Structure formats: structure tokens, C-alpha cells
Amino acid sequence: MLEALAVFPNELAAGGLTRLFLVLFPFFVLLELPLSLLVLAGVIRWYTRNLMTTPRASLYRPRVSCIITCYSEGRDVQNTLLSLCEQLYPGEVELIPVVDGATANEATMEAVRDFRVDPVRYPNRFLRPIAKWQRGGRVSSLNAGLSHATGEIVFALDGDTSFDNAMIGAMVRHFEDPSVPAVSGSLRVRNSWHSLATVMQSLEYFLSIQTSRVGLGEWNTVNNISGAFGAFRTSFLRHIGGWDTHTAEDLDLTLRIKSYFGRHPLRIPFEPTAVGHTDVPDTLRGFFMQRLRWDGDLFFLYIRKHRHSMTPRVLGWRNFLMTLFSGFFFQLVLPFLIVGYTLAGLVLLPLNVIAVLAVLIYAVYLLQTLILYLAGLLMVSERPWNDLKLAIALPVFPVFMFFLRGWGVICTLNEMFRRGHEETSMAPWWVLRRGRRF
Amino acid sequence: MQSPSIGCLTRDPGSFSESRWHYASSLNELREQGEYDVVLVDLDAADAADVVFLLRCDARYHLTLIYAGRDRTGNAPELSDGSIPTDPNAITEAWRKWHQRLSEFNRGRYPERFDEYVLAWLWTRPEGRLKPVRHPHHAQFYYYPLLSAFADNEPVNEMVWLQLMMEQGWLERGPLTDRIRLCTHCGSARLNYVDVCPDCHALEIAREPSLHCFTCGHVAPQDHFLKQGLMLCPNCLTRLRHIGSDYDRPLENYRCRACQSFFVDAEVEVRCLDCDTHHTPDELRIREVRPYSLSEQGRLRCRQGFSGEAQAESHFGRLNLVSANAFTNLLNWQIQQSRRYGETAHGSLVLLRFANLGEALSQERGTTLLDSLIDRIRETIRETDRCARTRDELLWLLLPHTDRQGMDRLRERLTELNRLFREQDGIHIDLRTVGITLPENLLPQEDSDLLMARLGGEVS
Questions:
Q1: Per-residue pLDDT for A430 more than 50?
Q2: Sign of the Cα pseudo-torsion (A39, A40, A42, A43, in order)
Q3: N or C terminus of chain B: which is more exposed, having fewer CB within 10 Å?
């Protein structure tokens, strides 16, 4: 460390820092900073808008259908169903737990069967389970649920995710505006304090879902409607044909909805007060394997499947730029740049210079994380005391993100050369084999 | 032996080849034609059942062999003796057997009273049973068609009667068909079980869920927590977002909307739909419904006759009962003596009526109590006194050479005794007594039948 500090003046004198600055600064200023500022501005706009508007009681209470995709969750499904029964929403809620592969997942099927909706305690809640005896994958579960749904609004929810009791009320509010085809909901980590991996993921969910999507949603550029928690206008969803086979059906659906944006004034709001609590992988290995799937799917979707819709004519300028930037560039190109620069640096630069650079980069990213974190904590979080505890993970977070970006390269390469999306566990191979290849 | 006269009720006489039979097309026609030894009812199932019942109600056909319908599957109408046999000789054969058995009944005496008819019916049909039939219109849901048919105009409490027969050992129980609960007031089984407020017994109660705030431990009804579509703890103002992590539902009590009381378990109350009496479930009378058949002892009694030792087993049997006919004869003789010899031939007649006999017998201690009461009566009366029962609950005592004073003393002792029992055991035997002394209280022209009818009217 001392050595590195000693090198600093030398480099400064030799004009090296200027050079380095010129190399690194555009990186940050041109790419990262605008996005961060956009998110931050969005958060502030959302916050002030919220402060100004007076809460109003609406009589808009459409019937809601909740499709809950269940697989091997076992008795956890009952928590999900109970949390949906407990919703404060005064309208009717139809619960459609779809058990995929019910023959094999006996425990889950049993849990769904055992669950009773007390008609006195929950007068407006109806349970209509669907058992898919043969496994058919997540998409088939969602579409089966959609075909039986009778609600005006349909929710796509995960069997291992439970919800705050204001969730449906908060989500449904947005559909009063006819230009809203879908609403994205916020996800929190339920098993936050199980391990280091879950703490880091909690912070990541808080920053990239709860806080960032508030900012993005404010500019109508929500990047994704999470598969574990999204709401759709049933008529619209049926119109575009429901969910499509292949993996990452949530991002696929988001992109397909967005492909109407160029022609119609539609918007997808994000609702931070509608909160779902989900379990994340306990171990780092589990986490990285999950990301291998998710990040690989990005390449599959952006480059293979939806290549042709990546035009401003389809997406509208705003979403085109945003997808290009945050989706395409940040998720697919940037990891290569980072890994490339790091490897090049390791080869070309002396070790002490690398150390200094690392500290510098770390400091910048820590500052950026800190600002976003504070904005989220002060303006967005509905459980600030819980989120305050996550602050101890902040110093590690930039390192965590660095490795995550690095892992992104492997993910993309895995998809590029091995067509990793075809190895998904979200559907059985005999279903995937018949899907259209891109 | 002669062959039976056979009456056949049919709409299509052509389908029978027997010329000796008498055909009728309606029940009235059949009745007017006279009395037949065997009746055939050739109608469809529903009509046949009605006709058989109506025939059984007719005293002439109480015991007669009645064949109904041509259903070969064994679903012959209730109270019939099966479906019409295809072989006419079988009818004659069956009638002969029946006739033989009837002639053995009670030493050849034809039955006169209700219970004699029932026993005779069972006696003449070795496979015969008193079968309970379920009917939703019936207040107790079950009734015994045979008892209803034989009851004629005299209403018989089937339960009491069967209980009495059981105690005397003449009938035996079949397998349990059902267990019903009856209103203690009117005996109806049409009961409604409702949950009511344990304090004010109001019907209007509602379940009221309560919430428990984890932050401060506050527990209150759910609606105290709901404020403008949000769930806030009214005590600590914490926002409750998620069941299991912020709050739970620890209890679910009931609230009475009439008296506002708050309780865990509602009380179950039974309301009689017929007389609107309210009971607790354990107050209800329980009745077991079963078929009955003639017991060994009953068969013995039918064979040996009703008088004499056969009655030894019954409660009242220990009183040296004489038959009703014998009693009226004795009474007539006493009346004649009193009329002729005046003051020197005193005599008294006492009638005891056990008005709630059935109820007393259905209680656990009631039977014992009745037994000891009868023991006391036996001790009280003299050897020269005569007792008889004309109906289940009516006990007659003829006390020769007993004047007004003596009779009053006897009545006093009996009432005294009954009061003692009531105080000791809390069981109430509703004993009513009435007595007259001969010849003072005798009306002109009055014979034993008129006198007994007069006294019977006084205690009913």
C-alpha cells in the first residue's frame, strides 16, 4: 500500500496520471455516470411527486387472478397463499396455484391441497388450484394459469415468494390508467442474514431492483418485470399471446410489451411499495450458477431472439437507447471491457500502479454505491431500519460487483458458444427441444 | 279342513284364473263384500302399500293374511305377507298354518285389546317383526306401521308401549336401526341445533378475528387495525405489512351482536321446530330405534294364555292382578251386594293413574322407583283386595268391606309415599288417585262399566 502511494507522485510527475485519467474517466463519465444520474434523478422525482400528491381512495377494484407457479417448494407454498389471502385489497382475488409435475412434486401438491381458504375470514379470496401432472416448465404453468384466470388483472408470482399485505392494492392502482399494460413489483430477499452470499444479494436486490427500478420506472424504462412478481392486464396479455417458451420468459415478455412502445403511448410503472419476499441461493456457488443462467439468457434474448426489435421504430427512442445502454452495453459489452482492461493492465502495468488504480476505481464505485444506497434508504425504502443494517456490506459491494461483472463474461461466452439457455432447468428437455431455435 | 275364502282386489280380474275367488275393483267394494280369510291386493306398489295399511286398520283384517303385488324381488309392501304367490295352493297351505297358529294363541281366545292384537300378529307370523319405518313427515321420523294400524282411535305412545313390552319380556330387541334425540316437551325429533351466545343465548353471533402486533404485543379485533386501507397497530402505530413477520392471528373469538360479549366457544342450543322449546343437547331424550320380535317368553305367554303366572314378571304382576273381565264381574257383584245389603256390605273402588308412566320408565331410576312403589302398594292392600289393569297406566283396586275412612287412609298413604320418593330421588311419578265408596257414591242404574268410565274420566 505504502509502495503504491509512493508510486503515485512519480506517475503524477511523469504525466502518467493524466494519461490514466484520460483512459479511465471517459469510462466512468461517459458510461456509468449518466445512467447513475438518470436513476438518481428518477428516484428524486418519484419521491417529490409522492410527497406532493394527496392519497386518494379509488373505487377501481377489478377482480385479480394470481397465478402462482409451484414446483418443489413444498409447504412454503402455503406461506405464499396465506400472504395473498391476507391482502388488504378489498376486491376479489382468485388464487391459482399451478403445480408443475404434480406427480413428482407430491409434497407441494399436498400443501396446495391442504390449504383451506376460510370463507368467513377471507370472504373475497377464491382458491382454484391447477395440477399439471406431467412436468411442462414454468412457461406452460403460467399459460395454463392464464387460460383459467377470470380476473381483469393477472399476477405472475413465484411459489416461494410471499407478499406484503398492501401488495395487490398498490399494484392494481396503476391499472386504472388504461395505458398501463403491466406493472413491475419490488422484490426483497427473505433469507438476508443466512450467509455472506445472501447479504450481498440483499444489497444487490435493494440497489438494483428496489432503488434503480424506481428511477428507471419514473422515466418509463423499467428493464424487466421480474418473473417472481409482476402484474399484467389480462386482455393485453392474452392479446400478445401470453408467455413464450424458452428461458427468461419474464424479460422476453417485457421486451415484447415494450415493442409496442414505439407505436403506442404505453408505460410500465414500477411499484416499490408492493413488496415480495423471496429466497435467494445460500451459497456463492449457487448464486453464480443462478447468474450463469440469468446473464447468459440476456445474450440469448438481446442478440439471438430479439435482435430485430432492437430499433427505435419498435421500442421508441427512449427505450431503444436504454436497452442499448443498460441492457446490451452494460450487461454484455462492459464485462468484456472490464476483464479485457484488467488482463491488459496486469500484463502492461507494474503491480503498484495496478494497486493504485484498483484503490481509485474502488473508491469511485464505492462512492457511487453509497450515493445510490443513501438515496434508496432515505427516499424509497419502506423498511429503512432493515436496510440500514445492510450498510455493513457496502465496503465489500464494489468488489462483489467486480467479480460479478467478470463472471458475466463467462456467462455470455457460455451462451454464445454452448447455447447455455437450452440447458435451463425451467423446463424439461422434451419441451425445450421443440422450441424455436434462434 | 275347509279352504279359505279369498278376496282379490284387482283392476284386471281376467288375469286370475281362479273362479272361487271373489274379485273387487276397489277397497270399499272389498270391504262391503264381507270378511275374507285371505286378501290379495293386485295393485302397483304405491297403491298396494296404502291399501294394505288401510286393511290392517280395519279390525276384521288386523291379523288376516294379505298378499300384495306381484313383485318377485321381495319388496312386498309393509304389513303384507309377501307378494301374491303364483301357486294358489300355496295360499291355502299358508292359511292353514296361520289358522293353526291363531287357534293356539291365548288358549284359543281371539285377541280383543291392542297389545293382544300385536302379539297375535307376531305369533301367527313366525318371521314377523315390528319394523320401524322412516318417514320425514312423522314427528319422530320413525314409526311402527303395525302399531299405528292397530292403534285404531286410541292413541298409543309407541315408545312407552314397546318399553313396557320389553320390561315384561314379551318382545326382544333387534339390531339398532338408529338413535334419535327428542324434545323433552313434545317428543318431536324435528330439532334445530344452533350455536348461540353463552351469556344471553342470542342467535346473532359472529366470528371476530383478532390480530397480534409483534412489535408491541398488542392484541385487538382486526377492524381496530385497519385504517384507510392500511394495517396499523392502534397501540404502537407500527405499519403491519406481512403476516408471520409483523403480525399474526392468535385467536378467533365470537362476538354476540345482541349483548356484545366476547367468547371463545359458542354454546350449542337445541330448538324444537314443533313446540319451540329450547334445550341444551344433554337434556334431550335419547331414543333407540330398532325392530322388535316376539321373545321366547312372549311366545310362551301366547301359547299358555295371558292370565295367571305369565304376568309374574311384570311390575304390576306382583299385585295379583286379575283380568279386566274378571275385575268387572267382581265389581258388578260388589255393586249388587251393596245395593242389596246397604251399609253392611261396604266396599270401595280406587283408581290409580300413573300419568307419566312412559317417562318414568325411560329414566334410569324410574323403573326401580316404580317397583318399590308397587311393593308398597302390595304391602298396603289386604289379601282380600283385587287389582286389575285396564290400560297400561290405569290400576284398579277393589277393596271389599272397606268404608270411606279406610279408603281415604289408603289413598293418603299412597300419596305420602309418592311425595317421599320425590323428595328422596327427585323423580316425579305423576300419581293421581280417585276413589268411591259403595253404596254411598253409587249413582242410580250405574253398573261396573259406567262406574269405571266415570272414575277414568276423573283422573284423565
A1: yes
A2: positive
A3: N
